[in-house]
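Students often ask why we bother encoding 3D structure as a string. The short answer is that it lets us treat folding as translation between two languages. Here is a chain of 147 residues written in the first language.
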Amino acid sequence: MPRSLDLSKGPVIEVVVLVLENHQGDVLITQRKADAHLANYWEFPGGKVESGENLSQALKRECIEEIDHAPNRVEHILTLNHEYPSRTVRIQVFHEISTHPKVKPIESQSMKWVPFDELQHHQLPPANTPILEYLHKRNKNQNHQTN
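And here it is in the second language, the structure alphabet:
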């Protein structure tokens, strides 16, 4: 019987991200460090879920570590699976609208608030494409409902 080859890329890496939106509809993005995977790409705050953490705990820890912000009223909006050449990630996407969030770059990373319509002009990881599509559709539906 022929041996089957295991072409998997190892265990799936669980990741949480926060789409943090302020009262003006701007979204916070941070820039990955030059020595990181996908160096200098812009991304939503978040990171890997550690062993023994649930998603909520991981989201809170990652956001405090990166932007000194403890998410409060979050909504889980998407679960995505994305395969990079060397890894597979499962991304749990959360959304929070915070009137005047106080954030600061704890890891000395670049950080900025971007109007929703300008997010696509920043280099975000390929795994973020479905997030942008979801936000675009949601924003379009909200604008349509107010007209």
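Translate back mentally: The CA atoms of residues 1 and 74 lie 51 Å apart. Keep this in mind for the problem set.
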